[in-house]
Amino acid sequence: MTGVTLKGAIKRYGQTQVIHGIDLEIEDGEFCVFVGPSGCGKSTLLRMIAGLEETTEGEIRIGQRDVTHMDPAKRGVAMVFQTYALYPHMTVAENMGFGLRMNGVPKAEIDKKVAEASEILKLDPYLKRKPKALSGGQRQRVAIGRAIVRGPEVFLFDEPLSNLDAELRVEMRVEIARLHQEIGATMIYVTHDQVEAMTMADKIVVLRDGRIEQVGAPMDLYRDPDNRFVAVFIGSPAMNFLECDVVDGTVRHPALTDTIPVTKGVPSDARKVTLGIRPEHIGVDRSGDTCTVDLTEALGGVSYSYLLAPNGDKLIVEERDDQRSKAGERIGISVRPERAMLFDPESGQRLR
Amino acid sequence: MTGVTLKGAIKRYGQTQVIHGIDLEIEDGEFCVFVGPSGCGKSTLLRMIAGLEETTEGEIRIGQRDVTHMDPAKRGVAMVFQTYALYPHMTVAENMGFGLRMNGVPKAEIDKKVAEASEILKLDPYLKRKPKALSGGQRQRVAIGRAIVRGPEVFLFDEPLSNLDAELRVEMRVEIARLHQEIGATMIYVTHDQVEAMTMADKIVVLRDGRIEQVGAPMDLYRDPDNRFVAVFIGSPAMNFLECDVVDGTVRHPALTDTIPVTKGVPSDARKVTLGIRPEHIGVDRSGDTCTVDLTEALGGVSYSYLLAPNGDKLIVEERDDQRSKAGERIGISVRPERAMLFDPESGQRLR
Amino acid sequence: ELTGELRIFLDTSNPAPRATMEAMIGRFAEKHPGLEIETTVIDREAYKTQIRNFLTADTPDVATWYAANRMRPYVEAGLFEDVSDLWAEPEIAENLASTKGALTIDGKQWGVPYTYYQWGVYYRKDIFDELGLSEPKTWDEEISNCQKIIDSGRACYTIGTKFLWTAGGWFDYLNMRTNGFDFHMDLAAGKVSWEDERVKQTFANWKQLIDMGAFIDNHQTYSWQEALPFMVQGDAAAYLMGNFAVAPLREAGLTDDQLDFYQFVTINPDVELAEDAPTDTFHIPANASNKEAAREFLRFVVSAEEQTIINNGQNLGQLPINAKSSVDDDKFLQEGFKMLSTNSPGGVAQFWDRDAPAEMAKVSMEGFQEFMVKPDNLDKILAKLERARQRIYDN
Amino acid sequence: MTAVDVTEHESWFHRNQQRIAPWLFLAPGVLFFMVYVIIPVFQSFNLSLYEWDGLGAAEYVGMRNYEDLYWEWVDRDAFYVSLKNNLIWLVMYLLAIPAGLFIALFLNQTVWGIRLYKSLFFFPFVISQVVVGLVFTWFYDPTFGLLNEFLSWFGLGPVNILGDERFVTYGIIFAGLWPQTAYCMILYLTGLNAVDPEQIEAGRLDGAKGGRMLWHIILPQLRPATFIAFVVTIIGALRSFDLISIMTQGGPFGSSRVLAYYMFEVALSEYGFRMGYGAAIAVILFLIMLCFIAYFLWSMYREEKGH
Amino acid sequence: MFPKPIEKQPRAVQISYQALLPVALLLWLGPLLAVALFSIKPEADFTNANYWGLPSSFEGAKNYGQVFFNSDMPRYLLNSFLITVPTVIGAVALSCMTGFALGIYKFKSNLWIFFMFVAGNFVPFQILMVPVRDLTLDLGLYNTKTGLVLFHIAFQTGFCTLFMRNFIRALPFELIEAARVEGISEWRIFWYVVLPLMKPAIAALSVLIFTFIWNDYFWAVVLTQGAESQPVTAGITSFNAQFRAAYHLMSAGSIVAALPPVAMFFLMQKHFIAGLTLGAVK
Ligand SMILES: Nc1ncnc2c1ncn2[C@@H]1O[C@H](COP(=O)(O)OP(=O)(O)OP(=O)(O)O)[C@@H](O)[C@H]1O
Ligand SMILES: Nc1ncnc2c1ncn2[C@@H]1O[C@H](COP(=O)(O)OP(=O)(O)OP(=O)(O)O)[C@@H](O)[C@H]1O
Ligand SMILES: [Mg+2]
Ligand SMILES: [Mg+2]
């Protein structure tokens, strides 16, 4: 088992640069998730690690080996594709054993490995079936099985669950997490579903436009994002942002009755600052009347109110109690200073 | 503007009956959502109202008019399809104006109406484009625009958002809700996404196998479901069910340290009863040790713990505080009697 | 003793000639058991296009073809073997003298003939009798005969011009009778303008027949065989054709009482009668591999006995080219033989498409066909032919 | 194991297999295609500058063959007739498209046995044009043809379609339309299968019916089928040879020739063997076709780039 | 479905539609049925001008017997098979490879090579006539089935490549990537992964090419002569020359010549139509 190291990895397609020098260290046995908006380069980065895309510059190491220009097959990685990429004309067992067979592994050994993998994934009843005769979740399991059989040092997953429906997605998510615990290999997982990222990852890598925005454990990113982009990306509904004035060392906003003290990071000459606050951290003050409730959405246990601040800023507030806001109502809101985060209005960098 | 009334509406395809006599009253200006599992007849019912499917028996009224056997184009309804069904060879403006053009409306008037609708939907910049050159959300807006332009009395939506990705879905959901407020027409909306149903509906119609299970306002269904089917269907994660014994007028379960008094509806001779409790209504008792935490998923503001009760029942608990359960930990749980619902273990009917 | 393989290509695809040739080859094979003979019979029309190919590739040892201009391109391209040596043999030199000219180009002989046949008018004697007609001798008689036939609801002549050459036969006769053999040959050689008054006179005569409805309708859609039934069924009274038409007519059920023959009538009494008598020939391709056997085969074909056999009434029903062989006592052959040897002072033509260069033959016969369908287009047609003449003979 | 020794162990071929493999896979096919198709096209261009009877040596004549063709054009001669007929073919043959659409619409139902009907309707397409030609020759036969039999029921006829220079081309085209219509029918039937039913329903809600539905909603969706039908029909029309050869041999008096047949006649038929001249005609035909090839490739190129 | 599904129409419309179908079919296939009728008539019917009446006696066996035992027809048929089958195998094999190369690999000239095949496929083949004939002559393959087969393979490769390449393009590319990650060589990817997936395309293409080649007439005339190598389409014309005006035999001969592709079509209908609409170009 080995970790993965990227040093200044760059990818260019012709003139256009897609990955702009990624430095990243993934520990042995870690579950690392790449997230980011569509087109940010998640898949490209993963495929560079797999060797399916040539790395233009920089270095990729798996364990001690420099694999930058190595053949995909030699890297000791296995990849699970979004579309599963099962060979439709082979049975489940054949699919899983194909790579070994082509590499001249004796039949008995193949059978043994396939049996092991299918036991882990509970695929025994389906070994003789063709992929067509399987459900989406089962297919996904076969794809994972195919990866396991080869006993790779690193597993690569490219949005493996995005073709499943919501229920199955939850189920398979749990299963992959369990698999990771069981075999303990390094896994790199691409998704744009932040629930998956939050729930599965040991380490989340947030990408934007081919650059790393932040790397860290899920709850660290949630609690302590480095910049506005990460703050928006992690957590749902997304964090609210209020454009505030800095007056006398305090942060003020017309929607807030109380003020929030500036943090260390705020430059002394700052006049404006962006305050970030998650919907679940806003307190509702029914007696106040700074904001108008524009719309409410009740989801049962929780409901979201869309508020309009006096200066036109929009806010979403999560409410859980039985007493909830109604559209048209006017309410006040409160923010606890330790929950508030301050960002540079221009660069979006966290000020702390 | 007018409501829609169904009286004993039945649909048969050859021998198989698909809709078994639906009686339903939808008020003028109401936003009514049909939900239910796949194949329950939501689309069929909607299409019967649209006139796209012949109604085998029964009566359909729109306002005062009996439209049961009327031509779809004459009913004063407009429909938005799941796949948008935009005419790919027409520009956005042509798409929106096509219905009017077919009905011989003068060009100037068509242009005016298209301009109005595109203003509401912020489609102005795209009027000259073909649908291919639009994003999913824009297409969806065009489909809605096409419906608006015809100025129908009733809007019909068949899973209009299911082809959009999660973010857009939220955005469009809000937009449709606003549209409803703005033009105030009667809207019937099919979905199997319960968030949509909860947030948008004035009235939810829960269907199962071509029959109505329950009709009511969203929070009414959430708080007071008629049966287990509706209880499962509304609310996410789904309600937990515990098979309990009735002992001495109280309901007991090994996972619960305290007992819950039986409600009126429970027959006096009942020995078993199913207790329903939503994940958000379970209290965690860190000092207790009736349940094992199997797995936890932290989503930021909220986290879900998957618990194993002593008798093997599985439970999901929602936790919000900073102190959360960890996998492997043992905890106790508590249920407030007013949050618990009792169901007949056999029929699934609510006992109240 | 001859050995090896002898490949023979034949264009005698109609059933009767095919059988005749195969029988003849059988007899040849008997005499030369060491020889492995392979015979390929190709559809007569297809053969005309394919000869190019097989003369250059996959070449047989013996192939049928036609005399005179028709063989010129192959002679000039060096694809036919010079067989002057055969013609030097006394046996052939003496007995085949009459056809030597048709096979001579540049003073050498390039093949041997195996049959020739007269052309003329084959007619339904029973219909003539029924209408009280007798064989015409002059143009006027011809016209009046024809008128009577037409009045009886029949066409005078059947003809199928789909493959064009049948119309060429009519032109041959009309032109030779109107302007004489030499003029005809000059025209074929491109020495006379098609817009010459004399040519126009030929067409004027032709038009006379056409206008009165002498020919069957829709002849442009039929091959010559497809035109036969009109005569057999009595819808047409006569057929201007080569003697090979007799066999199928007989086969179709016409007896010798019903069928008779006369020489094409005189039109311009000032010109001498001339006839069409196309000669069919055997050649040895220059690329042949077994020329020794091929020569032997040619000798065999022209031998007096074989000529007697293959040309008799049961077989080809045509005229032998060997002076020593006897003409079958079939009445048509006798009559034809007599006609050609005594009553053709003007000369003997091969046939329009053998006397004229191929390209000209094609264009002109197309013109004849058009003329037969649309006689009013004559001027246009002649202008076109004249242009073609200038182009073709120019090169 | 280090990167260096890995690469050393691999053969050059192995390391570059992704770069070499396509060329190895392509080699036989490209070779064949070059030798038999691409090079001959250029040879034909070259040959059209020569006069050659296929036997002796070729004589360079420059543009003479084209000049001759030009004069034939001016004189309303064979070349003119062929070109004119080709245009008639092009235009008339396109009738197969609406006809095929019509039949496809007619058959686009689900009733018992419809599959069999569909395949029987498709039948003419599988039959050789040679047989089609024979069949129609008899159909048109002036004495006993079914056509005249049929016309006589209405007191019409007889007409000799193939013997009349006014009708002959149309007669042959009609025969050609028979299989071609079947072909277009199949294309449209599969096209109709792919028509989005929701769009039809949207159309119904919008009040489009019958012809207007067909025109505004169905036909635009059948565009791919129409495009393909168009391409194959044009190409079929320009390549038309078999039928003419079988039915009329270009007659009567050359009035049913098209370029494809004319060039065959000039180059390889009984009275022909003007190879250079034939090649010149082929070049003209090729240039006409080139418009369509270019159009096809262009639309294909756009599609490829669109992906 | 358009037009309105017939099940939703009134009963009367449904019945008249059902009745109209066979009538339309009869009209549509009229000429062909006439030939079938001719082929079982005795010769006498034609001399008696009984062209369209019922056959005065059933002579199908005799006529077809004549075709099979008393003419070159069986030889022509055999030739057709010997030409068609190797062509199908050759063209499909070549185009599987070219299609694979063009469909899977990205290299600069990819699209241009592809376009070369496509353009070549649309060339009016008359322009190839003289050079190809000369080439065949030079190779010593004139009037051999081999000569015809080689040309057909080459020419059909254009169409087949278009077809195969588009088919392979539609395959999920991940399959190839998955295989590459597993360390499978390109040749084995072709053989073990792509080829099995191309079975439907191969079937469709085979059927299609079979009928194309079987029905070829032009090249048969240009490149062969005589019964030893000509296929049935060319054979039928000389057959007809031999039995000129014997309509019963000509009809029987035509039917025999038409039968194999028709049988092919019926047996392999699904593939055939898939082929047409997938490749969609002749
Ligand atoms: N072959 C290519 N040529 C040029 N640009 C490419 C190519 N492949 C990808 N790109 C570009 O690289 C960028 C990153 O693409 P990538 O597929 O890695 O995004 P992603 O993060 O996986 O997105 P998604 O979530 O949609 O899968 C995109 O802007 C894309 O347009
Ligand atoms: N044309 C038809 N013939 C026979 N049965 C049909 C037909 N159309 C629909 N059904 C049946 O009617 C039932 C209801 O179908 P419907 O499409 O209304 O379900 P739905 O609730 O919209 O499901 P989904 O959420 O999957 O869209 C299904 O069981 C379906 O199989
Ligand atoms: Mg991606
Ligand atoms: Mg539905």
Secondary-structure map with pairings?
The complex is a heteropentamer, with two copies of chain A (352 residues), one copy of chain C (395 residues), one copy of chain D (307 residues) and one copy of chain E (282 residues).
Chain A lengths: L3 E10 L2 E11 L4 E5 L6 H9 L6 E6 L2 E2 L10 E4 L11 H11 L4 H14 L15 H14 L4 E5 L7 H18 L2 E5 L3 H7 L2 E6 L2 E6 L1 H6 L4 H6 L6 E8 L2 E3 L7 E2 L10 E6 L4 E4 L5 E8 L4 E6 L5 E6 L10 E6 L5 E3 L6 E2 L1
Parallel strand pairs in A: 3-8, 3-9, 6-7, 7-8
Antiparallel strand pairs in A: 1-2, 1-4, 4-5, 9-10, 11-12, 11-14, 12-13, 14-20, 15-19, 16-17, 16-19, 17-18, 20-21
Chain D lengths: L2 H7 L2 H4 L1 H31 L2 E2 L7 E2 L3 H11 L3 H16 L2 H12 L6 H13 L2 H12 L5 H8 L14 H26 L3 H9 L4 H12 L1 H17 L2 H6 L11 H10 L6 H32 L1
Antiparallel strand pairs in D: 1-2
Helix pairs in contact in D: 3-16, 4-5, 5-10, 5-13, 5-15, 6-10, 7-10, 8-10, 10-13, 13-16, 15-16
Chain E lengths: L10 H29 L3 H5 L12 H10 L3 H32 L5 H13 L3 H13 L6 H26 L2 H9 L4 H12 L1 H16 L3 H6 L8 H11 L4 H21 L1 H11 L3
Bound molecules: adenosine-5'-triphosphate (2 copies) and magnesium ion (MG) (2 copies).
3D structure, described in words:
Chain D: Keywords: Cell membrane, Membrane, Transmembrane, Transmembrane helix, Transport. Chain D: The chain crosses the membrane at residues 20-42, 87-108, 120-140, 167-192, 213-238, 277-298. Chain D: Pfam families: BPD_transp_1. Chain D: This is Carbohydrate ABC transporter membrane protein 1, CUT1 family. Chain D: It is found in: Cell membrane. The complex is a heteropentamer, with two copies of chain A (352 residues), one copy of chain C (395 residues), one copy of chain D (307 residues) and one copy of chain E (282 residues). Chain A is α+β, with helices and mostly antiparallel strands. Chain A is built from eight helices and 21 strands. Chain A has helices at residues 42-50, 92-102, 107-120, 136-149, 166-183, 194-200, 218-223, 228-233, and strands spanning 4-13, 16-26, 31-35, 57-62, 65-66, 77-80, 154-158, 186-190, 203-208, 211-216, 240-247, 250-252, 260-261, 272-277, 282-285, 291-298, 303-308, 314-319, 330-335, 341-343, 350-351. In chain A, the strands form four sheets. In chain A, strands 6-7-8-3-9-10 form a six-stranded mixed β-sheet, with helices on both faces. In chain A, helix 2 (92-102) crosses helix 3 (107-120) and helix 3 (107-120) crosses helix 4 (136-149). The longest helix of chain C is centred in the N-terminal third of the chain and has 17 residues, at 15-31. The mean pLDDT of chain C is 88. In chain C, the strands form four sheets. Chain C has a five-stranded mixed β-sheet, with helices on both faces. Chain C has helices spanning 15-31, 44-56, 72-76, 84-88, 90-95, 97-100, 125-131, 139-151, 165-179, 181-188, 197-212, 228-232, 246-251, 291-302, 304-310, 331-342, 352-355, 358-373, 378-394; strands spanning 4-10, 35-41, 62-66, 104-105, 108-109, 112-116, 119-124, 155-158, 236-242, 259-262, 274-276, 279-283, 347-349. In chain C, helix 9 packs across helix 10 (181-188), helix 9 crosses helix 18 (358-373) and helix 18 runs antiparallel to helix 19. Chain D is mainly alpha-helical. Chain D is built from 16 helices and two strands. Chain D has helices at 3-9, 12-15, 17-47, 64-74, 78-93, 96-107, 114-126, 129-140, 146-153, 168-193, 197-205, 210-221, 223-239, 242-247, 259-268, 275-306; strands at 50-51, 59-60. In chain D, strand 1 and strand 2 form a beta hairpin. Chain D is flat and about 70 Å long. The relative contact order of chain D is 0.12. The two termini of chain E are 28 Å apart. Chain E has helices spanning 11-39, 43-47, 60-69, 73-104, 110-122, 126-138, 145-170, 173-181, 186-197, 199-214, 218-223, 232-242, 247-267, 269-279. The mean pLDDT of chain E is 85. Chains in contact: A-B, A-D, A-E, B-D, C-D, C-E, D-E. Chains D and E meet through helix 3, helix 7, helix 8, helix 10 and helix 12 of D and helix 1, helix 4, helix 5, helix 6 and helix 7 of E.
